[in-house]
Amino acid sequence: MSDPTPPDDPRHPHDPAGADGARDSGGPAGRAAETGPRPRRIAVAAALTLLQGIVIAALGVIMLVLVFTGTPDNAVQALTGGVTVLLLALFPLLAGRGLWLLRRWSRGPSVIVQLLALPTAWQLWGMEGVWQASAPPLAAVALVVLGCLMNSVAAEALGAVPRDA
């Protein structure tokens, strides 16, 4: 089914340039057109943020599976924990999708996810086994994403540049 509105019409559903300063397609208007459809730094940040969300969601699913297959000390508490982790996974998943689509709003949530990942990695480092082994990759991913998002290329691509006074 084709859309009757032309792509350069502000009402076009695939043209959010009026809403957040970037186009999905990297068309002629909006900030994304100046740097191309999607800078590599944004693509890397989006992919890694999405990967974090997938890992968090997988942990939530594992927690829920263990509620029903294992013998938790407190089933209600374990169930609540699993559901909470699944809901928390939405934050990086939505932020990663927003970055992939060059949405201006997505930079802040992704940065927040990374800033929360750094102290989490520090805490995991103090544990034993697989938890301790997961700390360096978590910290590395967080630092890479922060590096990808905290620069002028990312700011311009996402339309997060200061307005002229």
Which structural category do the helix and sheet elements fall into?
mainly alpha
- Give the helix tally: 7
Average pLDDT value? 82
User: In which range does the helix fraction lie?
Assistant: 55-70%
H/E element string?
Answer: HHHHHHH
- Low-pLDDT stretches are 10-35
**Shape by Cα distribution:** elongated
What's the topology here?
Elements: H1 17-20, H2 32-35, H3 40-69, H4 75-100, H5 107-125, H6 130-149, H7 152-157
Helix pairs in contact: 3-4, 3-6, 4-5, 5-6
Structural commentary:
The longest helix has 30 residues, at 40-69. α3 (40-69) runs antiparallel to α4 and α3 packs antiparallel against α6 (130-149). Mean pLDDT is 82; it is low at 10-35. This protein has 165 residues and is an all-alpha fold. It has 7 helices and no strands. The chain has helices at residues 17-20, 32-35, 40-69, 75-100, 107-125, 130-149, 152-157.
In short:
The chain has 165 residues and is mainly alpha-helical.
Comma- or semicolon-separated keywords:
elongated; mainly alpha; 7 helices; 165 residues
